[in-house]
Every structure is written in C-alpha cells, then in structure tokens.
Request: fold
Amino acid sequence: MKIAYISYLGQEIVKRWAEWFAKRGHEVYLVLPAHTTKVQAEFKGVHIHKVNIQSYASKIFPFPTIWSGILPCRKVINEIKPDIVHGQNVIESGLPVVFSGDYPKIVSILGNEPFLELIVYRLLVKTVFWRVNAIHSFAENLTEKTISLGVNKPKIFTIRPCPDTK
Reply:
C-alpha cells in the first residue's frame, strides 16, 4: 500500500508511524516543506518529498501558511498516486489533504483545532472535517468538540498516544 503523509511539523509521531508502516513493506512517502533540514536523515525506509510552500501567491493572501501548500502538495501527491493521504494537522496540512485529489483522506487532530474561535479557522476546520473520509483524534475532549461542530461520530476515531488513566 502507498501511504502519503503531509506534515509541516516533522513530528515524532509522524516518524514513528511512517517507519512502522515502512518496516511492514508499505511504500511510505512524507511531504515536508523545503525549509525542514534535520528530518530527512532521521527517517528510515521513507521517501521524503520537500515542497516549496513559500510562493508569492501565498504571501498575498491572509494566513499564508493555510493556503501555501495546496498546489505544491497536490503536484507531489499526484506524482506519487498513493492509496491513502494522511494529514498530520488540520490547520497546516488540512487543505493540502482535502485538495490532494481523489484519494481516501485522513486528518489527525493534534491539539486545539476544534477550539479555535477565529472565524477563518473555524471555517477551515469545518471544511476539512466535512471533506475527509476519517478523522483521527488523540483525546476524548477533541472528539466531543469535533462532534459539536457537526461531524458524524462514525467518521471519528479516538486513539490515544498514551495510557488511559481510567
């Protein structure tokens, strides 16, 4: 299976997931911004694609980090032709995942995305949640807040990265 991760942060959890799938024989691709340098050497068995998200068009729009990755990521994803596209953060990689093409799409809620109050972010989060096939949540409170935004419960999977204290 070909799995494409879009991550602008280069987080440790992305590294663990990507290497886990790569060890089991899957083709794993990681799409990162071109300015990340230290991450490339750390991933084993993962194909790294760096995209330039610092375009002129992204600088003229408000909130440039939201819009800047859509076209470069779409171009790379269409070259890869993955079976699944997984975005690691709703705000940074949500729109590149949504507009990546006709692939199954997953997005992970890593923190405060459902709790943002600024209208632009709320519209962005709702659009991403509406257009993806599955949502991975790290905590029950994130799942509950996502449901309160109008997302269907069967679309949300809560998988904690730590032990459950209950």
About this structure: Helices lie at 12-23, 39-42, 56-60, 64-67, 70-80, 90-98, 119-131, 140-148. The mean pLDDT is 80. The first helix runs from residue 12 to 23. The two ends are 35 Å apart (CA to CA).
